[in-house]
Amino acid sequence: MVKKTYLHEKHIELGAKMVDFAGWHMPVQYTSIIEEHKNVRENVGLFDVSHMGEIFVIGEDAEEFLNKIVPQNISKLTNGKAVYCQLPNRNGGLIDDLIIYKLKENTYLIVCNASRVDEDINWMSLNQRGYNINLDNQSHNLSLIAVQGPKSIDLIRKLGYKDNQDSFTIKEDKLLNIPMYISRTGYTGEDGFELLVINEYVEYLWDKLLEEGKEYNVMPIGLGARDTLRLEAALPLYGNDLDENTTPVEAGLSWSIPKNKLDNYNGKKVITEQLENGAPKKLIGIKMLDKSIARHEYEVYYKGEKVGVITSGGVSPILNANIAMAYVKNIKEICLGTKVQVMIREKLHDGEVVKRPFIQKRNKVTRS
Amino acid sequence: MSITEKILCTKSHEYLLEDNGNYIIGLTDYAIEQLGDIVFVELPEVNTEYTKGDTFATIESVKAASEIYIPVSGKIIDVNNAIVNSPEILNEDCYENGWLVKIERTGDDSEFSDLLEYEDYKEELE
Asked: CA-nearest residue of chain A to B87?
């Protein structure tokens, strides 16, 4: 049965077009994907991302356990800090990508993809033996609203937020008397917040954000614009850009992996070998040179030879161009500025390899 | 008489509108509404001939690419280049300015048998 978030009725009332996504009935757009996209870049948008998974890892071995299951160095996390992580299998292929928050000593929160909650829990349970921890999947009790865009800070200030926390931090707080976790994270490349509350409070919070946000031109944003926003910011989408046969090195995520981590994490052998010697494929960004749109699974060619496949592609409303990410053979001839071709309806269309992200990200916030 | 009273529609959401003995083909307002923002239009060359049901154009929204089928057999005699340059015209008006192509029919009248009047087409959707 298709699941509904606690904001489902609100989406219907707002006239959203609904689609099934990862087992959930979710809004894909309210007005127009392009309009919603631009509003997040210029003002502020609200996303219901309650479908995402929240798993608490609690116990005296929590740090050690997390160090076993992700390539990132969890020991470096201080209280209230967050880190972008991957969950590799023993071959280095990705079961999921995650954000891990250290709430306090021995207590961590994992936010994971809706489509992967069950796999993540299974995998973590398999790895749990010998560690004194408790895995507590709270996904069904918690709702998550992302408030994203340059005016997101103004909006939540209006709701009583007094702080100005760094990006990639989390704190327990109260807004409107509602207890919540506030994290300065998101999936748009903009500054923004994610508000995690128990289900019963989310409708009230949503309404208040829409009402108080009017002066900042707040709009509800569907999954359609969520996808175009994250594509411009070159943030990977599990299932499109990441899967169990793709390592984080291949996925262009080497920047997130410490090279000197001592713990023997899952997939370490393959991942460190690839960090040193390179991987068989690599992720590239492509900007189409005509009006054609490269989409998921279209083939990529270089000098007449098929060299790879598009993982995510579509329009960039900000660049007014069409952009894509692709896995291609890891050969040095394919680099920034190289012309490649994408097969679209049996015709080859030129694209140029460009740097990722496609736009300047604006989510780096540090306290002055 | 409003334009929707003069068109015939296919179940795949194309419309056909008589125009001085020839026919204009486009996409219904329902189809456009479902697609959302149109960002790319690919139209055929003038003089290309198609048989009823052939793919003759591609329209892409932000989310996906859709093939467009010709409602009756015919030869392309004109294409709407304005929408190739400005696909958003389709979102504003899919009948007056947002038409796709004009054809000269080459098939027989039996090809009309499965086309629906707009009111019946709308009913089919419910």
From this structure: A291
CATH number for the domain formed by residue range(s) A280-368: 2.40.30.110
CATH, domain range A8-50+140-232: 3.30.1360.120
* Side-chain half-sphere CA neighbours of A339 within 13 A: 7
What's the rounded Cα separation, in Å, for the pair A301 and A303?
Answer: 7
Per-residue confidence (pLDDT) for residue A350, from 0 to 100: 98
- Judge: B39–A315 Cβ closer than 8 Å, yes or no: yes
- Cβ–Cβ gap B37/A33 under 8 Å: yes
Residues of chain B contacting A228 with CB distance shorter than 8 Å: 62
Cβ atoms of A219 and A225 within 8 Å: the answer is no
- pLDDT tens digits for B25-52? 999 999 999 999 999 999 999 999 999 9
pLDDT digits (tens, 9 = 90+) for A110-146: 999 999 999 999 999 999 999 999 999 999 999 999 9
The second-level CATH assignment, the architecture, of B9-111 is Beta Barrel (2.40)
Does the beta-carbon distance from A33 to B60 stay under 8 Å? no
For residue B78, give both structure tokens. 């004109």
